[in-house]
Amino acid sequence: MRSRKPRIRRRYHLRMGGWMYMLVMGFITVAAFNSQQNLLFWTFSLMVGVLLVSVVMATLMMRGLRVTRLLPDHAVVDEPMTIRYQLTNQNWFIPCFGMQVVEMDGWRNGRLRGKPHGWVMHLGPRSTVQAEATGYASKRGAVDFERVRIVSSFPFGMLRKSLTFYSPSRVVVYPKLFRIRRELLWDIRSIEPTGARRSEDGGGSEEFYGLREYRPGDSIKFIDWKHSARIGKLVSRDMTRLTPPKLMVVVDLNRKDWQETEPCERAIAFAASLICEAHLEGFEVGLMVEGVPFPVFPPHHSRWHRSRMLHGLGELDTMQKGQSKGITAAITGAHWVVVHAGDGGRGVGPAKAVHLSHKELEHWRLTYQPSVPAKPKAAPAEREMEVATWA
Amino acid sequence: MGVSVSFKKMAYIQVVLGIVAYAVAEGNPVLVLAGGTLATLSWYIVEGPGGRPLPEWLLNLGVIAATGWLFYSQLPGSNQVLIYSLGQFLIFMQLFKLYERKGNRDWAQLMVLSLMQMICAMLVGASFLFGILIAIYMGITLFTVLVFQLKVGHDEVNLVNEKQAPPGYKTSPVPAISSRHFTRHFNGLAVVSGLGCLLVSAVGFLAMPRGEASGILGDLANISKRQKTGISGEGMKLGSSGRIELSATPILNLRVTVNGKPVSAGAYEGTLLRQLVMDKYNPGKLSWDRSAEVVRGDVVINPVEKGAQDTPAAQEAPDTGGEKFTELMVGPPGLADEPVVRQHITLRGSVKGQLFSMSPQVRIDEREIGVSYNPYDRVLTSRKPTDGDSRGVYIVESFGREPPGLTAAYLRRWNPQGLAPFNWSDYARGPVVKDIRVTTVARFILAGSGLERDPAAQSTFHDHALADAIVQHLQKGEYAYTIDLPDVGTMDPNVAFLTDTRRGHCELFASGMCVLARELGLRARTVRGARVSEYNRVGGYYVVRERNMHAWVEVWQDGTGWKVYDPSPPAEVARVQGAGGGVFAFFRNLYEYAEFKWVDKVITYGSSERRSVIRNFETNLESVTAMLAKLKEQIDAVLQMIQRRFLNDAFGFVVFLTAGGVVLLTLVVSLMVMIKRRRAIQQLQLASVSRRLQRRLAKHLEFYLQMLRVLEKEGFIKPIWQTPASFAAQLELQNAVRFAPVVPLTDLFYEIRFGGRPLDSDRSRTIGGLLETLKQTL
How large is the ipTM? Predict the structure, then answer.
């Protein structure tokens, strides 16, 4: 397959050191011609030589350089995002030294804290290395990367040569994730006194569900020998299995002041953290957003499902008004938690849903304090009332 | 970490070497010891285990003090030369920097200070040892700068990452990614860069136009702190006391040929080279000088018209490269068969105006020096200052002896050019000092010789015999040769030498003899010059150093002319001035030769040399062009021959076409095989193994590439980063039946590649079968 020629822009930039060097060279020239000192003539010629070699080496060194960006699947706010680069030196003879790999565009919309910088000390001729740059996302959303710049001041530091590669790609930044107090999930689980439910499907090992034809791999202890003898072929007993509890997280982004986004961001971050925490606890988690157009994710337990939900929350546009797209009626047997961006109302979610207003989100957030795990802060009156209701 | 540590070591070496090189250039051993020791010590104090920098306030105080000292040293009335003060100030600054905590900016400042100091050193010194130190310094600096660039780049990235991290987040240093053979590539690039710089600098140095120094820099230009102990300026000053330091600084190099033929090595050792002739003693200054009447006789040889020398045309006048001799005499008949001694003299040190030569001179090729000649005392005077930093080359031809009638020959040559009138009767005659003790000594010598001499007589036929008697008197043991001169107080040094101390060096011997000769009425004059004492067998020339400076006497006698008398004890003079032998003589000569070449080719490289280099380059270019033209002619001839033999008939044409086709096909096939092999080596990642193993493995592992090609046809491409095992596992996971042969083929690949197993017939059969199965299953 013929590869497309990458779009590259080359630039030379005389650095401060280079200007100083030129200035000193000027002084040496004057001194040499006025004093006719041969060593000064030699020094001047040497300085010209250094300048020429600097230009030639910088030009030749990065001539056959190619870079491919390998972005991660996602990033998380305030957590390091490692961007990998595959650098190839197509030059036959000349190695490259001292290269900085700089992402030029990701920081423009404020989603990254500055330009991620990577460093490659040496890249031999006809060889490939993988470098990495660490960026830090400051906001959730999609980060668009376009230009990667390779910069080198080698060999003498006076001339900086840069190669800019154009390679558009994007990565979604998930909302900020933090640990949630486990008591919240315990409280939710405590509503169902029997604990885990049994699935209506077979495939487990709990109680008898029915009989089916033996399949290779079935345990011998599940073979119903009597039935097998009766019908002349092996029959296995199918058993019911336990299913984890279900949790449906609803993010209510309805608020009074539509321009105010800060409470929405807090609610989204809390919801994302809750999803992760519930996933870790073994819950089947679903997601729904009220107030903005957003698909409904029915409860399910898988990493891929969790990533889809986080991805959706990462790309959620809080300024758009609309409704969730999806059918919630089919979601049965789930516990509902409604995370409100505003003060919240009872209109969202089923009657038994747990409502968390924006004021109490901080309360459930687990902060790493050196002190002993302390009592929860004085809960607001509304919270006390709801706990009483659950009890 | 590794780069950082190696950079620090190299930077320290660079700075210490810079300090030592400057001290060597300045010729200051105290500075070498103090600066070098303090700089080296700083490594243990600051960078060593448990080391810590000095307090900042102390260093700041030191910087202020050093700056104050620099200004103080340049106040009116201070004798400090600016460039020396500046150099020493830079040493202080570097020492302060070495003892402080250093970031990248400080390191850069330190390196710049070191470079500035080397520029100061270049203005101060030009010795060969300094040249060697410069070369080492430049090499180390090159590596230091390159490593510094890597360090700075790495630190910059780490700093940016630290700044970008969220508050409270601790970042780890970015790993320094490097592919294989870092050291080899780095050293190679450094050497190539260094050679490139050297090449450009050599071309620039050789081709850059040279002119006259305009002196805008004032004191910075032509600075020389070296003490010229051998030549004491105009005249010959007596009256000093204490020990004379013998300086080994070279003054000139001398090559001698007689009638165009080289002479045997060392044959001219002991020869006297005249420089200055003094006929007048000044009792007030206690010195011998040239009388004003004689000085008026200086005639300019080949005068350049006023203003012409300032024009670029005059400066850049083409140098024919041939010799341009000027006759100094119109020789009397009978001198045609006289052997002519040619002296090719290259000045290497200060000669204070007067040029050296053997006497009597016949002709001179003054080159670019510009010379005046005085036919009365035969002194050659340079019209340009000739010091150690400006080259002077001239050729003088002289007779080996003093033939009669020379004065007339000189006057015939120079009188037509308006020679100043000259009173011969009083020239170099009359008592020098009026002291009864001197008269007594002179009469004693006269009495001892058994001759008589009327002091009023201009010349007698036994004047030279009398001079011989004086020499014998001075050399008979009563007078001792020493370079540790006694203090004579207010007494005239001649009187003290002849009558009291009787100890002295060559100048006192010569002056004493001249005093005695004049006392007896002889026409005598003192001569300052050099005694040729050292022959360099490596370079094939004589070296005259400042310690070889000598003084002697010339005595006139009618009919014979001037005759040279050296009253100093010859054995003592030879002992003091000799170069010494021993097992290290060869190495000493070698070093001396290298030093001369350094001065000759680098320090004193001038416009004429530049023209010569460019001329040689043009000549070589022409010869290369001519060679290429000749080559083209030969190719044309071969082509014509081919056409004549092969292309004129059908059979020949077919043969030629077939041969050409075979050659072309061979080339194409070779190229394809080469490309295929390189590609295989790349795909099999065999770059790290030896060439021999590469060839063997590339042949034996060809089956794996075949397997990859088969898979590639079906759209299953192995990425370069994926290991064969991982690729096989991935395919097996995808479809265990379809890709069943991939796993055993991969196992065989590992066995041969890493297990050292041969590709025997069993394996070949297995591989063939597996490949066939893979093609079918796919």
Answer: 0.78
